[in-house]
Amino acid sequence: MDWGMKNRMAQLIQADGHSMWLPVDHGYFQGPTKRLEEPRKTIEPLLPYADALFITRGVLRSSVDPDKAKPIILRVSGGTSMVGKDLANEGITTSMEEAIRLNVAAVGLSIFIGTDYEKESLLNLSKLVDEGEKYGIPVMAVTAVGKEMERRDARYLALCCRIAAELGARVVKTYYCKEDFEKVVRGCPVPVVMAGGPQVETELEVFEFVYDGMQKGAIGVNLGRNIWQNDFPVAMAKAIRAIIHENATPKEAQEIYESVKSGKQR
Asked: Does residue 127 have an active-site annotation?
């Protein structure tokens, strides 16, 4: 691994080997997402607690101050929307030259294994890896499941993660699953970050799946809506960060959340 690649990976993965990344790229296919309607207002209070942002070039330029930014993972795939025929029919939307111009730490795109556009999305990944390796920019593969959320089982996720790693992704973002998540991580020879988990009703349940995923080998999270759609996003960010970087238990994370929520901790 060349110096530039090592340096960018070190920006993303902290000295303890863990990472907390904040995705705010949802608008690229969802449009104005709830509580992300004005990206700057969502991003700014949470920046101190994120190790990196996963973001599109448009929102990066319009909503993040260059002198206050965290390392950037640039979303470079898209071309589909929630109202279109198939979310899986993505292409590469942003050039590697643009990524270099924006001084990003990594680029990311989605792969759609098991869909009609499996081949196209995997070839997109391969082409992006070729470009990234040329310039020392790591590629994060996102194992998207489109509208078919029932595919979040270990066998499917392990398949996706391994293929992404085989094609050259330096890190893989995938969903947490309660059963056999350790097999997903063990079968992937590059770091795995969690994108989210099953639908949950409480903050404690979020803390539980983040903690469990970390215990089973994930290096961290790339969580968005579980944080910024919460009524107390800063409290949520602090609590999850404690799990990732301080090995806090779900109970301890809940105590942090309640303390920040009540104003006892800032």
From this structure: no
